Amino acid sequence: MRHVRNGLRSVGAALVALTLLAALVPPAGMPVSAQANRLRVVASFSILADVVGQIAGDAAEVETLIPLGANPHAYEPSARDVVRLSEADAVFVVGLNFEERLLDVVREASGGTVYELWGCLPVRPVMAGLDEHGDEAEHAEEAPSEIEPASTLDALCAEHEAAVRTAFGLDALAPPGAVTRADAAYFDTLAEADPHAWTDPLNVALWTLMIRDMLSAEDPANAAVYAANAEAYLAELAALHAEIAAQMAALPAERRFIVTNHLAFNYLAARYGLALVGVVIPGGGTSSEPSVQEVLALIETIRSYGVPAIFTETTVSESLAQQIADESGAALVRLYTGSLSEPGGPADTYLAYMRFNAAQIVAALQ
Question: What's the rounded Cα separation, in Å, for the pair 127 and 339?
Fold first, then answer.
């Protein structure tokens, strides 16, 4: 949860931005929005933008950098994205190398504060779920840059954790296998941490409180608005968690084994007692390809555990997953992972996204 003030330090990026800015200046006489003085916020991808928007309400203008349906791991920013970043008062990213090809440009081009939202989260090593079943794989992602050492952030995170425990009625926040800031291995774990933390609603509850604080720091005049919106959203997240927990609890133990296209549901599996026994694409990103031996081993895993479905996704190719499904007899079930659906679709908000995915998983495993 770092505050990094970045300017357009790259001459090339600056020239692109200035050229496009000139093209985007409205002609004389064109009306300018009456909301132009609102805080301008950019979030890296649609799920995060929706959460930020829930806390911001009408007090800030929130837009998404990565388009709906695009793969956040592979998205490369355009010249127009550089302009949008340069005009933003604040930029929100997941961090932990989730936005693999975007973070350097964000840090370089942002005209405002860049907020990385991993700071208070319990993190899980990329292959934590698979290690329990003997299917280990290497993870070559980069660690977060400029990791902030233990500081007053620890006290702030402890306050947030206590608030989330109270809102959700839980004695403990971190699920089994997660590493928190209180653990000695926390900063080492960040080098191989799975960034897909939002598939656990409790992590989004922590995001909510971090985002509230960050927006308030940027816009103190609307701090009360952000606080009220955050409190209301916490209640919605607590209801979401209770609903999904009840659905998952109804699954028998022998029907709790899952295989996913890439490692996008590590946190959800840990929170709701599912056993992640395999992934099609190894590692934490989406650019790796499994070896022939890994594919054969996964087919055998699916058969031996009686896994009924491979959960694929809307933003990543499922061609290899289809081949494995054909060989193993498993069905393919598509979930939303790195993007919301189009407005009016089944997953057009974070809450709808989680409910849709949970319903698909439960239906496939029953």
Answer: 22
The phi, psi pair for 37, rounded to 5°, reads -90, 0
Q: What's the domain range around 312? A: 250-365
Q: Any idea which residue has 């992602």 for tokens?
A: 141
Q: Which residue has the tokens 């070896």?
A: 291
CA distance 57 to 225: 8
Q: Report yes or no on 30 lying in a domain.
A: no
> Do 196 and 259 sit in the same domain of this protein?
no
- Alpha helices of 57-191 — where are they, by DSSP H? 79-87, 103-109, 128-131, 152-168, 186-189
Nearest to 195 by CA among 121, 92, 140: 121
The answer to whether residue 205 is domain-embedded is yes
Q: How far is CA 40 from CA 1, 45, 68, 90, in A?
A: 19, 15, 20, 7
Residues 267 and 339 placed together within one structural domain of the fold: yes
Q: Strand 60-64's sheet: what is its strand order?
A: 3-5, 113-116, 90-93, 39-43, 60-64
Phi, psi (5° rounding) for residue 151? -160, -155
* Structural tokens at position 125: 């090593």
183 plus 281 within the same structural domain: no
Stated pTM of the model? 0.83
Residue 152's pLDDT is what? Answer: 77
Angle, CA 175 vertex, CA 188 and CA 237 arms, to 5°:
115
Question: Which of 77, 71, 121, 76 lies closest to 95 in space, CA to CA?
Answer: 121
Q: Count how many domains the chain has.
A: 2
Same domain assignment for residues 142 and 7: yes
3-state secondary structure of 313: strand
The CATH code of the domain that includes 121 is: 3.40.50.1980
Q: How large is the angle between the packed helices 152-168 and 201-218, nearest 10 degrees?
A: 130
Which DSSP symbol is given to 247? H
- Mark whether 161 and 263 lie in a shared domain: no
354 and 263 fall within a common domain: yes
pLDDT block averages, 10 residues each, the chain of length 366: 34 29 34 60 97 98 95 90 95 92 90 93 76 38 46 87 96 90 87 92 98 97 98 98 97 95 92 94 68 93 96 86 95 95 97 98 96
